[in-house]
Amino acid sequence: MNTVSGAIGFVARFGLAIVWLWPGTAKLLAPLDSEQAVAAYEIAPASWVPPLAVALPAFELVLGLMLLAGVFLTTMGRDALLLAMAAWTAWRPFGKYAIRP
User: Fold this and answer.
1) How far apart are CA 45 and CA 42, in angstroms?
2) CA gap 96, 25 in Å, rounded
3) Got the DSSP string for 4-35?
4) Per the CB 3.0–4.6 Å rule, which of 22, 53, 58, 74 could disulfide with 35?
5) CA 26, CA 61: separation in Å to the nearest integer?
6) 16-72 pLDDT, tens per residue?
7) Is it the case that residue 95 has pLDDT exceeding 70?
8) Where is this protein chiefly located (predicted)?
9) DSSP sequence for 33-81
10) Distances (CA, A) of 28 to 22, 47, 59, 92, 93
């Protein structure tokens, strides 16, 4: 049982790492598109868009590599969940990106 759950955890971790690495690499290879995408969300002031467009791919790549290496898995899981919840909460009041029931 422990071997099966370990294998499932590894596959899930590997899959989530790909979810972080794929867009991080795409944003790194197309910085102008990345900057336009960050600006399109309209959640940060215009002066923050260029630094965010540079930092976001690096952040995604570091998270993906940390998942592959198995570094800080519990902490990363908690923090990723909190970031996702914060993003969802930030967008929901505006109704622009909210998930409708």
Assistant:
1) 7
2) 27
3) HHHHHHHHHHHHHHHHHHHHHHHHHH-HHHHH
4) 53
5) 10
6) 888 888 988 998 999 998 898 888 888 888 999 999 999 988 988 988 898 888 877
7) no
8) membrane
9) HHHHHHHHH--S-GGGHHHHHHHHHHHHHHHHHHHHHTTTHHHHHHHHH
10) 10, 20, 11, 28, 31
Dmax (CA) of the chain: 52
Query: Rounded distance, CA 94 to CA 26, Å?
Result: 28
Look at the block and give the residue holding tokens 């002031």. 45
Which residue is associated with the tokens 């590894």?
10
Residue the block writes with tokens 């290496």: 69
Element housing 2 (H / E): helix 2-29
